[in-house]
Amino acid sequence: MDLGYTTAQLRAAASDAVRAPSLHNTQPWRLRLRDGGIEVLADPARRLPATDPSGWGVRVACGAALFNLRVALAVAGVPARVRLRPDPAEPDLLARLVPDIPRRPTPAEQSLHAAIPRRFSNRLPFWPDPVPSEARWRLGEAARAEECWLEFLIGVSAVTAFGEIARSAHRVLERDPAYRAERERWLRREPAPDGVPVAAGGPQYEPQDVLPTRGFGGRDRAPGRDFEPEPLVGVLGSVGNTAIDQVVAGQALQRVLLTATDSGLSVSMLSQPIEVPTAREQLRVSLGRFGAPQMVLRIGYGQPGRPTPRRAVDEVLDYPIRSR
Ligand SMILES: Cc1cc2nc3c(=O)[nH]c(=O)nc-3n(C[C@H](O)[C@H](O)[C@H](O)COP(=O)(O)O)c2cc1C
Fold first, then answer.
1. What are the phi and psi torsion angles at 28 (to 5°)?
2. Can you give the pLDDT at residue 226?
C-alpha cells in the first residue's frame, strides 16, 4: 500500500495553504515536499524586523497556512497527522504532515475548505447589524477546537478600555520610523504577488475612531461611513506563548476566520496591541485570562470585497515535485 500523498493532492493543498493571511501579506512560509508528506517552514527572509522582531507574526501566519493544508488534505480524503516543530535541529521547520488513515471529509471540513478562497481582510467600516449570539458561539467553538480561546469584549466600557490600549500601542509603533517604512514598503500601488494592495487598505484611521485600524494607503472614507461606534471585538488567545503555541494560535486564527466567512461575516485583524509587549500584557490582564492574546479581530457584516494576491505555489515549494 502506498502511504504517500499524490502530487496532485499536495499541489492542490499547497495552493490552499498560500491563501492564509500574513502580516502585510508577506507570505512568510515555505512548503517542502518530503517522503510523500509536506512540511511548513518559516521563511525568515520574509519576516518584518521592525514590526515582528520576535517572529510571532511569521509563526501565526505559518499556523494559518498549516490549517489550510490540514483542511485541504482532509477534503481530499486523506487527513494529515501533524507534528509541530518535529526537529529541534531545524527551528524554522514548524510542522510536518504525513498521511493518516483515509476517510470521508466531514461537512464541517467541506464548509471550511469552501471558505478558503472567499476569505479576505475587510478593512472597511461594517454595517450596524449586530452579530447574532449563535454566530459568536460558532466562532468561539472554532477557537476552542484548536485549543485556543476567543473572548468577546462585551459592552461599551470594555471596548473603550481596549481602544485605549490599542491606540497607545499604535502610537508607540508609529513613533518608530523603521516600522512606518516597513508598512510603506509592503503597500502596493501596482499589481503585485505580495504586499497589501492599496484597494484593500481601508480608510485611514482618524482620531474619533474607537479602534486604531492599520492604514495602508490612507484612503479617504466615504461621507457618513465612519467605523462602527461599538464594534464587535474578539481577542484570540492561546494557553502559552512558546513558538509552538504561536503556530497553534495561527491554526485557530484561520479556523475562526474561515468559520466567519462561512457564516457570512467580515473580519479585519488588529495586531498593534499584540506587537507591543506592554500593551499585550495590559490586554491579557484586562481580560483576566491565563495564556497569551495572539490576535484581535473586528467582526461584523461588511461590503463584499476581493481576496488579495499571492505568490505562485511553485515559488514557495522548496523543490520541484517529482511526478508520481
Ligand atoms: C499575524 C498577523 C497580523 C496582522 N495584523 C494586521 C493588522 O494589524 N491590521 C490589518 O489591517 N491587518 C492585519 N493582518 C492582516 C494582513 O494584513 C492580511 O492577512 C494580508 O494583507 C493578506 O490579506 P487577506 O487577509 O485579505 O488575505 C494581520 C495578519 C496576520 C497573520
1. -85, 50
2. 84
